[in-house]
Amino acid sequence: MKTIYLDNASSTQLDKKVLEAMTSCFGVYGNPSSLHSYGREAKILLENARKNIANILHVDKQTIFFTSSATEANNWIINNIINNGVKYVITSKLEHPSVLNPIEPSMEGFLIKDSSIHNNEKQDFESFPSFKEEYLTKRNHIHTTYLNTTALGIIDYNHLEDTLRKNKRNNTFVSLMHANNEIGNISDIKLIGDLCKKYGALFHSDTAQTIGHYDLNLNDVNIDFCVCSAHKFHGPKGIGFLYARESTNLLPYILGGKQETALRGGTENISGIIGMAKALEISYDNLKQDREYIISLKYNLITKLKNNIEGIEFNGSSGSLNPDKNLYNLVNIKIPTSIPIDMLLLKLDMLGIAVSAGSACSSGTINESHVLKTIRNDLTMPSLRVSLSKYNTIEEIDYFVTSLKSSISILL
Ligand code: PLP
After folding, report:
1. DSSP symbol at 28
2. How confident is the model at residue 109 (pLDDT cuts 50, 70, 90)?
């Protein structure tokens, strides 16, 4: 059976050249912290990868701290600011759970154990009273403002400036993502960075969906912290990094050895780091042509959906073909009839098509999307997130549209 992967915002296919780079370094098995030649060989690979990543983003290599994921990097920085005297947090309800939950654990979807995996009762924050107490006590002194957002998912920048102005003398931390993983809207991080600088606030941006897809000169933007996840741009899973402009702002996150300047202990994932650096290099070497190709796929997808399925709409601004407004590889489709989303996903899966119901990051089960809940009043119509990559083809788009149309009519 034909299989078609249209869930690239969730994770991407490993590039063959990345696999080759990773395979070739498996032979280097010394510990980069060891002083002998084996260790030094590994250390050279590690530091070269850090330098190459830093060069691509136009920053100093000391600003890059390897982590296991973007989730870890977001948690690191948010725990850091909570323990480091920040009193005021400004964010939005559209952020990824790896930002929302560390800021305010009672926010949407904080699930400690996933019942579908552990086969036990669904356990949430309330099931762990001592953990809850410790977590909340640490956050007692923090006041959080969630910025207003429009129906298109756009941040209200006036609200941001007003809030920053009012808290000028407080230690303020702003966390606003660059691109939303569900509806794809892009925030103006240059403007946000300038406002944060003007009012003396620290600015963190979750850039997990844009690093590897957008030209980012971190020197040009007043951004203090951002994050990366290699598996979003044809790199391996389980590896990412935190960028911190001033490492003096950082408290240690994992205590152990002296790795990552003693801020994050643990022997480094050399093959993952090599794979991430290679994936980033390939992405930026081919950025322009891959982007043009993927935009042509998005254009085809939107046009064919509109021509074939009456009443089809797009959530947020994901129907836009302007890559500066919305991710060029993502469309979030609002299905015009109230059919059950799990049945629709199953039907498409049976036809070999992989798409997502919303955000797949925390999935396994389908939860109501906190992002769609924030921007839409009515969630009776189901939504599908289709996300594209350089490996998709026009034929796949055609097959998807035909299959979606037939699946909707069968389920009606
Ligand atoms: N932030 C955003 C915007 C994401 O889309 C994701 C994953 O989908 C993450 C963070 C988490 O990334 P990771 O899979 O590296 O933990």
Report:
1. -
2. very low
